[in-house]
Each structure stands twice: as structure tokens, then as C-alpha cells.
Write a structure and sequence with these properties.
Its main location: cytoplasm. With about 425 residues, the protein is of the alpha/beta class. The chain has 14 helices and 16 strands. Bound molecules: pyridoxal-5'-phosphate. Pyridoxal-5'-phosphate binds near residues 117, 146 and 210.
Length: about 425
């Protein structure tokens, strides 16, 4: 595999951009080697600057659920471009996309558009704090909610002790207001609430976690959180930036029937363009400016080109329930193939899957939280990543990520991936 042009670009990029990339997850630091520079994408494929072709399972970290450069999205964007790029005034499409989101996502009665998932989660906790008049938030170890200060907090060993900033630049003051608990541990949440009685504005979580590798909520966990929040007057926020419009057209909340007070969205909602959104109960959303006193704004929010892509995507998903049947089937076939490979090779690694999201953890321990995930052999994952890449399969370059399936992935592609998985596992053990 010749990657000379990517290497040259990366050399130059490192002199101009921190680490050579505009988002850290794109670097190959965890798996070795240099990142590939992508020139184009179509359907299930990525093409790099050196002309290599890959079947890929990143899909822009989720958004490309119907494959790259889908003609519907292309047409919506090229039509929209004829009419100007941004006005800073309301447009018809914002009303139409809001109506779609409200009709698709069970918890959402009113919605505000922003430009990224990070903006959505930052706004959602501000709204929860403004609404409840309380300061502290509870998040879970290993859940990622974008790069807002409040979310960059590592778990302290004692969950009740004050949070420790996970990044220089996050103040102790901010860290003190973020409490953390292990995922799937209802008792730890109860203890945090008891120790901070009357001071907690919200609990925020990924209802199915994609950002420590795929982790599934245990039976009763989400329900338990819902009950605790009701009892204590705490706002429950599902961060469905990854799972929204993916695990069903109404997100994971539609699958489980557990309805949060606020929901954050992103990724798929923009069809590949930068869009995020937060929404929920009218009573809470009506406290947002200019309807209410909680301030949140954006010069390019509801941008005409971005909403054109998003509206085309959501309309398609809303009208094609067979998309989700296919994604389930594709996810099941792919993971069954990997399981069968492991059996043949005498391996017993943990494979977590929900629908079109999955992670193969290089550990034999069941993975139900971040501590479990950290038992994975990341060096072995790096070898596996390189072995797959060599065979033309491009995976997320980290053990702690979920893989995403799109409808562009045919049964033939799945066979190719399963075969590559067998060869790669065999090569590295
Ligand atoms: C990606 C992601 C975010 C952040 O979204 P950006 O658009 O990258 O700012 C927030 N929450 C979850 C669950 C995510 O997966």
C-alpha cells in the first residue's frame, strides 16, 4: 500500500496544525503510523490521496448512515446553494426541519438548532441549570459529550470527591460542579445525589455509549435514572448525538420507551454538514431566549445549506423504515461473522453490538463500563487495526470507539470485512 502523498501532507500539516489534524481522533497515535488523507468518498468507500480504496466503518463518526455522497443529499445541497449561503434571518427550512425532529424524536416538543454536538450539550446543561436553579451535573465515566469544559472531567477514585479536570485549561471551579459515576451503576448515582442533596441540575449520558467503545445499558439502568430524576427534580438529558436517528428513527429513547427531559442531537442530523440540536419538554425549552431568560445563540445556526442536507437526510429516514431493518440485519450478520471467526481461532474477545453500532474489545472481560473497557489490550488492537487497513478495511483508529454501519454496505462488503477480520485476527495472535 503506497501512502507517500498522505505522508508528505502529514509532514506539512504537523508544521501548520497542532498534531497535523483538526480533531484529535483523526490521528493514528493510538495505533501507530500516519493518518491517511482522504480525497473523496462514495457509498461504502473512502479514497485516499494516493489512490487507495477502503471499505470503511467510520462513516464520518456516524453521520453517513446512508453512505457517502448520497444523491438525495447532493441534490438538496446543490439546489440550496443557488439561493445564497447564509442570511442571519429565519427561513422556511428551519421550521420544516424542526417539525420533522419533533415528529421523529419522542422527547422533543420544541427544538433549537446549533452547529455541532458540542454546542448542543453545552447549551443543554446551561438550560438545565437555568431551569432548576442548581449548579451541579452528573456525568458518567467514559461518556463523551463534546469538548465543553464541564465534560472534560476524569473520574476521581472516590465518586463523591470533587472532580479533577481532565485537561489543562479547565478550571477547578468548573470541575467541582461536574460529578462522575461509573456507567451502569445506579447505586453510585444515588450516593452522589444523597451527598449533594438539592444541588443537582441534571444527569447527562449517552443512553447507549459509543465513546468508550460500545457499551450497553443494563436492564433497569435507564429506568432507574428516570425514576431518580423524577423523584429529585433533576433534568434527565440523553445525549443522542451518536445514537439519534441511528438506533431507530427516534433514537435509542424510541427503542426503550424511556423518555428524557432534554435530548441532544448532532452527526446524522446534518447529513454530513455541521449541525447539532437540543430539544425537549416545552416547559423547559420555553425558558430559552428569546422566549425566556436563558441565553443561547449562533450566527450560523440553522444555516440554509446545512438545513438542506439535514432535512433531506431526516426526510429520507422518516419515510424509509426499511433502513433500520437493513441496518439491524447488517449489524447482526457482521457481528455473527466475527463471532464465528473468533470461535474458529479459539478467541473469546468481547463483542458489544446494538443495531448498526459495535465494538470488538480485545479483552475477555464483559464490558459494562469504562473500567471494563480499559482492560482491553490496546497494543493488540493497534496490530488488528493495521492488519485490517492492509486488507483495505478502514476502522476507527482507537479501541475506544464504536464502528458504524451504513446502508451502503452490501452483503458482499460484509463478507469481505468478515474475511479480513479472520485473516487479521489469525495474523496477530
Ligand atoms: C460526537 C459527539 C459529541 C460532540 O459532537 P461534535 O459535533 O463533535 O461537537 C457529543 N456527544 C456525543 C455522544 C458524541 O458522540
Amino acid at each position: 500500500m503506497n501512502t507517500q502523498i498522505s505522508e508528505q501532507l502529514f509532514q506539512k500539516a504537523q508544521t501548520l496544525i497542532p498534531g497535523g489534524v483538526n480533531s484529535p481522533v483523526r490521528a493514528f497515535k493510538a495505533v501507530g503510523g500516519n493518518p491517511l488523507f482522504i480525497k473523496s468518498a462514495k457509498g461504502a468507500y473512502l479514497f485516499d490521496e494516493d489512490g487507495n480504496k477502503y471499505i470503511e466503518l467510520i462513516n464520518s463518526w456516524g453521520p453517513m448512515i446512508i453512505g457517502h455522497a448520497h444523491e438525495l443529499i447532493e441534490k438538496a445541497v446543490s439546489d440550496a446553494i443557488q439561493n445564497g449561503f447564509s442570511y442571519g434571518a429565519p427561513t422556511r427550512r428551519e421550521v420544516e426541519i424542526a417539525e420533522l425532529i419533533v415528529s421523529m424524536v419522542p422527547s422533543v416538543e420544541k427544538v433549537r438548532l446549533v452547529n455541532s454536538g458540542t454546542e448542543a450539550t453545552m447549551a443543554a446543561i446551561r438550560v438545565a441549570r437555568g431551569y432548576t436553579g442548581k449548579d451541579k451535573i452528573i456525568k458518567f465515566e467514559g461518556c463523551y459529550h463534546g469538548h465543553g469544559d464541564s465534560f472534560l472531567i476524569a473520574a476521581g477514585s472516590g465518586a463523591i470527591t470533587l472532580g479533577v479536570p481532565d485537561s489543562p485549561g479547565v478550571t477547578k471551579g468548573v470541575a467541582n460542579d461536574t460529578l462522575t459515576a461509573p456507567f451502569n451503576d445506579l447505586e453510585a448515582v444515588q450516593t452522589l445525589i444523597e451527598a449533594n442533596k438539592g444541588n443537582i441540575a441534571c444527569i447527562i449520558l449517552e443512553p447507549v455509549v459509543g465513546n468508550m467503545g460500545l457499551v450497553i445499558p443494563k436492564d433497569g439502568f435507564l429506568q432507574g435514572l428516570r425514576q431518580l430524576c423524577d423523584k429529585e427534580g433533576i433534568v434527565l438529558i440523553f445525549d443522542e448525538v451518536m445514537t439519534g436517528f441511528r438506533l431507530s428513527k427516534g433514537g435509542y429513547q424510541e427503542r426503550t420507551g424511556i423518555i428524557p427531559d432534554l435530548t441532544t442531537m448532532g452527526k446524522i442530523i446534518g447529513g454530513g454538514m455541521p449541525v447539532g440540536a437540543y430539544g425537549g419538554k416545552k416547559e423547559i425549552m420555553d425558558r430559552v431566549a428569546p422566549a425566556g431568560p436563558i441565553y443561547q445563540a449562533g450566527t450560523l445556526s440553522g444555516n440554509p445549506i446545512a438545513t438542506a442536507a439535514g432535512k433531506a437526510m431526516l426526510t429520507y429516514l422518516n419515510e424509509h423504515p426499511e433502513v433500520y431493518t437493513r441496518l439491524e440485519e447488517a449489524g447482526n450478520t457482521l457481528t455473527a461473522g466475527i463471532r464465528s471467526n473468533m470461535q474458529k481461532l479459539g478467541l473469546n474477545y468481547t463483542l458489544n453490538q446494538v443495531g448498526s453500532m459495535f465494538t470488538l474489545f480485545f479483552t475477555e472481560k464483559p464490558v459494562n463500563n469504562f473500567d471494563d473497557a480499559k482492560t482491553s489490550d490496546t497494543q493488540r488492537f493497534g496490530q488488528y487495526f493495521q492488519a485490517m487497513l492492509k486488507r483495505g478495511i478502514y476502522l476507527a483508529p482507537s479501541q475506544y470507539e464504536a464502528m458504524f454501519i451504513s446502508t451502503a454496505l452490501t452483503d458482499e462488503h460484509i463478507n469481505t470485512i468478515v474475511e479480513a477480520n479472520y485473516e487479521s485476527l489469525k495474523e496477530i495472535i
